[in-house]
Design goal:
- This protein has a single domain, classed as Helix Hairpins (Orthogonal Bundle), CATH 1.10.287.
- The protein has 128 residues and is mainly α.
- Strand 1 and strand 2 form a beta hairpin.
- The two termini are 17 Å apart.
């Protein structure tokens, strides 16, 4: 008797793969956001050490533009706040994707177990 994967398991396997891909995307984006947050925190820390009247230049494309410490700090604080919100959203998405993965994995195990039990009964019925 040839082994066949039940269609329901195939369906859940596809869904499981899609969820794994989604989780990988979420984790990649989360990592990028965390890296950017670390860099912003490092820059803000360095800014705190500088006197208020120091000349600061920021890059806009290929041009460096003179700006004030206060303006740079304000801009970085706003960007930090947005990134922290994005990180929280990504953490929620990650949690939900992991929950769904566990749910699909449980369904696959359940369906395979039922299929195995049915196959066992069929074999016993043929033998008897």
């Amino acid at each position: 008797m040839a082994e066949r994967v039940p269609p329901e398991v195939q369906h859940y396997a596809v869904k499981y793969q899609q969820l794994q891909n989604l989780l990988a995307q979420i984790l990649a984006e989360k990592s990028a956001v965390e890296t950017e947050l670390r860099e912003i925190n490092r820059v803000l820390s360095e800014l705190e050490r500088l006197p208020d009247e120091v000349e600061i230049y920021k890059s806009i494309g290929h041009v460096l533009v003179k700006t004030s410490k206060a303006d740079v700090k304000k801009e970085l604080d706003e960007k930090k706040e947005l990134l922290e919100l994005r990180l929280k959203a990504l953490e929620k998405q990650e949690k939900e994707a992991r929950r769904q993965l566990e749910e699909v994995q449980a369904r696959i195990k359940e369906v395979l177990s039922k299929s195995y039990q049915l196959a066992e009964k069929a074999l016993k019925g043929q033998a008897g």
